[in-house]
Amino acid sequence: MATNTFQKTSASWGLIGGLLLLMSPMTANADIKTVSVKGEAAIIKGDKDQGLKDAKREARRRAVEEGAGVLVQSNTVVRNFQLVSDEITTSAKGVIVEEQWGKPAYTDNSVSVELTAKVSPEAIQDAMCTIIKANHDPKVALVFAERVGKHGMPYQKKISERGPMETLFTQALMDSCFTIVEPGVAITEISSTGDIPKATIDEIASNADAQYILIGKADTLYKEASGSFFKGTGMKPYTVASHIKLFSVETLRVEATATANHVIPGTNSLAILNVKDDDDKGRKKIETKVVAPIMDELFGRIAKRWSSDLVNAAQVQVIVKGIKKYRDAKSFVKAVKGAFSGVTINQRGVKNGQGTFDLALEGGSDAFAAKMDGSKAAGREIVVLEVTRGKIVLELK
């Protein structure tokens, strides 16, 4: 199991879901890339200036995508994160390091413009990771049961140290902008099949500061060699396999499962885990045949949830402190409806001087906090105490 808290440093940040690529240092420090793209946008209500701005934004987005190239296209989380390119274009510094614009070409209802840009793939990697952390701050607690040795051996009854496969999955998660946190619970009971009791999982969920619990079983096992292929080589057939369950701490339900295995000849378990992939010399075969397929499945599921979070970013829970009377809550609802046209607000409950409301409005938490901070409700000032994605805490002063 994890024995330290791992936090990625800027020097080692990779692409979101870099676990699917496990990029070599040479790739991570790629040179500046020059790309030529064209952006096009509609001219609405005769506003040519806004049309040109929109066309340039589209061109920059295309430059970012082309600059990242196959790194973006082959990445599960990025494929599902439809807004990433736009967020990078508007918020990341150093991604596009130089721009040369062509002359805009106008038609009656559209405008197009060509852009030659120098793009930094390394800055794209950092920017993606920054965006993921800002939106989700993903943390995961890992618990692995491993067997390393001969086929038929049982799992250890107590997890005492990180095994070789857990190390690979730990690095894959770190390369994907996750923070690895301590489970906060000593794992003292594991079944002969490598399963952890549900009570222990529940305890981990209560103690670990994480959104997910990743529980894994991993084998690096050999059989005695037989047949002419192995004769005189000193090698044995190894089976390397992992089965992963991803639990949501919020629901305590299994969010995804994935399994992968690969048979490979070798002299010992350490050598097996370090065999280079024939098709990708920069990576190890076990990373491509076992770790990557599992992570592709897991992060496809995670990405769907994150994408849904982005789509539903306008959904906000508001907690209002300092409600002295029930009519104060009604006054707050009236103030919100007066400040935002088209807002939907539902009062969930009022108890012990605190009210909870669910609302939906364009712009989400930030827009709500910016407009309501300092305004009045129930004759008192609204003070914003806390703003996070999808949640705001206010107080009536």
Uncertain ranges: 1-30, 70-93
**CATH class descriptor name of the largest domain:** Alpha Beta
Question: Average pLDDT value?
Answer: 76
The share of residues in extended strands comes to: 25-35%
Helix-strand makeup class: alpha+beta
User: Looking at the structure, what is the overall shape?
Assistant: flat
**How can the largest sheet be summarized?**
6 strands, mixed
Q: Under CATH, the topology of the largest domain is which?
A: Rossmann fold
SSE order, one letter for each helix or strand: HEHHHHEEEHEHEHEEEHEEHEHEEHEEE
Overall helicity: 25-40%
Number of contiguous helices: 12
**Whole-Å distance between the termini?**
47 Å
The second-level CATH architecture of the largest domain is 3-Layer(aba) Sandwich
Strand neighbour order, sheet with most strands:
13-14-12-17-16-15
What labels describe this entry?
single chain; disordered N terminus; Rossmann fold; Dodecin subunit-like; 397 residues; alpha+beta; 3 domains; six-stranded mixed sheet; 17 strands
